[in-house]
Here is the input.
Amino acid sequence: MSAQPSDAGSAAPAVPFLQRFPGIARFLTDPLGMLGLTLVLVMVLAAGFADLIAPYAPSAIDVKARLASPSWDHLLGTDQLGRDVFSRVLFGGQIALQVAFICIGTSLVIGVALGMLAGYGPRWLDNALILIFDAVRSFPTIMFALAVVTLVGPSLETIILIIIVIQIPGYARIVRTQTQSLKTNEFILAERSLGAGMGRVLTVHVLPNVIGPLLILGSMDVPVVVTIEAGLSFLGLGVRPPTPSWGSILNDGYAFIRNTPWLVVAGGVPLIITTLGFTFLGETLRDIFDPRLRKTT
Amino acid sequence: MWIYTLRRLGLSIVIISVAMAMLFLMIYLVPGDPASIALGPRATPEMREALRAKMGLDQPIPIQFINFFWNVLQGDLGIDVWSNRSVSVIVSEALPYTLMLIFTGLGWAILIGIPMGCYSAIRRNSWIDKLIGVLSVSVIAVPSFIVALYALLVFAVALQVLPAIGAGEQGDYLDQASHLILPSFAVGLGWVGYLARLVRASMLEIMGENYIRTARAFGLTENTIVYRYALKLAVLPTVALLGVGVGSTLSGAVFAEIVFARPGIGKLVYDAVITRNYPVVMGAVLVTTLLIVVFALIADLLAAWLDPRVRATL
Amino acid sequence: MEQPVLAIRDLSIDFTTPRGQVHALRHVSLSVPRNKIVGIVGESGCGKSTLISAALGLLASNGTVRTGQALFEGRDVLKMTEPELRAIRGERISMVFQDPMTSLNPVLSVSQLMSDIQYRHRERSADEKRRRAIEMLRQVGIPDPEERIDHYPFQFSGGMRQRIAIAMALLTNPSLLIADEPTTALDVTLEAQIIHLLREIHGSFEASILFVSHNLGLIAELCDDVVVMYAGEVVEQGTVRDLFHRPAHPYTQALLECDPARIAKATRDLPTIPGEVPNLVQLPPGCVFQPRCAKAFAPCTKAPPPTVPVEGGPPTDLPVAERHAARCYLVGNHGAAA
Here is the structure.
């Protein structure tokens, strides 16, 4: 290197980005994690740009072409009403993502609130909340969903509501544990004695500690939520036709399974991609950033 | 040990009671009542009144609640308003099929999953360990109803080697067994992955312990160390896990029953949901919740009993 | 001269780690004569554990033997196959470990544990194995052994568990018993009892004992010969008498000075050896103790010193590994005025 007098005595060489964030480097070199990330990106981009990519409208009926096998015209074939399955799959992705976002987002918020309440509030409230959480968790998910649907009637909104209720106890528990351990922490007591209110304590101390684990858990819950919605739509108890949830595509596929296998295949593959992708991604993230979350139940 | 048992039992009873209360109260959180819902929008007011009276919905809520509790304790889960049969009878007819499915599914998963986990731990970081690792995560991630559908597609519809529908002829065990193969495969596949991972992690932890080092230093054979010393300990957490996991297995069983048109709780409830037959649904949910709590309790107690350290100190 | 039970000759072992090659043992030679108690003393990281693992053929998979042999009753342990090793582990060589709380399998009863280690003796019936186990428990001082043999380890105190461990180690009448810091996890009264027990056992059984410790007092009480290790080398060895009365290596001298039991008058500051144990990946050129040695002089930084006999020791026709010797330029006719 040529001598450059103006550089003499300048600052130390910049630390490469990856060295400063070793976690990210580890993630980028983990094959499973990268595979997960790729699958997730494929799914998210396909769903996000469904309007641009989809060759047909998802409800466009063409009875003459019903139950067709895949061809250049219809990449994944058509269903019993002649609708293009590929387009329906793309828009189904939108539904899946919407459901995931709404459900996880809402149950996170409520879960955090309830968890803080349980952890910080009076003992009786904590006990009551824990009892309710345990009771909710003791219901088999599907049975609980079926019971609610019997009463309220099937619809996507019902499903979303059910999923939110089921997800809350999991998040609340984490926040509650963290809140409880901080409640008796000495420096918290010191802060309280100096007049800090409960709100400040919770936002400044509890929230930062729980955000990481919650985000990881949340991302690992995406496949769970998408699966529940798909499962219930598959049973005909979720989205109402003609909305193209992957589950409803599978429902059609099941009904016509002896006519064509392609509907079942087409409805299942995006689900598999989504669940595998988010699971690989979530597991890798968890192993790198917070192995404590590895629970055995 | 007894005090622990009683405490767990007490806790379980409380949880079930709360669950029952929630199921009961759900009716009132919803616009309309079960009678209107069941009859649909075209019913006349007289029809609704009649059904309401029949279902006991005309009494004040607290009375209904007490009646409900009292009835359940006596094993009376109400009457199916359409067929006039006792819900308890209906549920108890369907339950054995579901239980058989669940246990067969879990059974083969245990037979395959535990040895796989053990093998992974012994051949740690080999290519087969990594392969099992990826496969385990994958089968855990993929929903069991997808597995059921694809199994149906491949083996029953395309290849036609296995039956697609039903539980088989009564009394013909071979036939019933062949009808069990695909559904129990779907129910158990996720568990294979779960168990393999758990056993692997347990084994690795145990193999690093000091008493394993002692056993090696005394020249015990690798077989003795792995199977008698390590594996015995490693499967303890799986017992507790299986108990807790009966709930998720139930979900898988429900879907499998519907996909393969097998008789059982799943099919029963599904049909009841379509007809908005809440008493049947509620009865089935209660029974299954009870079963889950009971199984979790048994598994927990069993796990505690199997570990002599816990057994002696309880 | 009888063949020693254990003869380590010029043993060097490296471990491959992400940080580089860790030179855990370098040209270590020592021997354990028949029916003697030999002590190894040294601080953490001096290589004692590596040495013991090697003697049992239990070296970790990232360890490589660079040179040397570990001869047990004349046969090189490092070259044996697994079945050959399994034949002698727990049978001819046994070991008592440091932590009695975690060294015994928690879910097996003592009788099961003690029967398991007799598995090679197929000619013995289950009753016979149990009888021997009970007898051994009685000998190590477990009260009421017929009953307690069916208990689980967690039902015994730490001291009792260590006695059980010793009983297990002696069950097959080994020629060598290796005790790796057996009393470190116990309080002082228990420690005294265990040492007393070991001495008794040495008397009644014909076993040599290799006693590893960082406690000089115990070594002095129990052992016949001593080996002092530092950072993977043997820096001094000899009989207990030689070493404690005429310590030749500065490290040994410093250790003795720092032993709290030897402090003659009350003082505020406990004597310590300044500095730290060297990095075993990158060793200092010259003597390994030189960076912390108060008596270092010119040759010490150039090359590692050879092992040299110390004047006034036993007759010099014994091999170096069996008389008072030290690895120091200050010893013998290498010594300059201190």
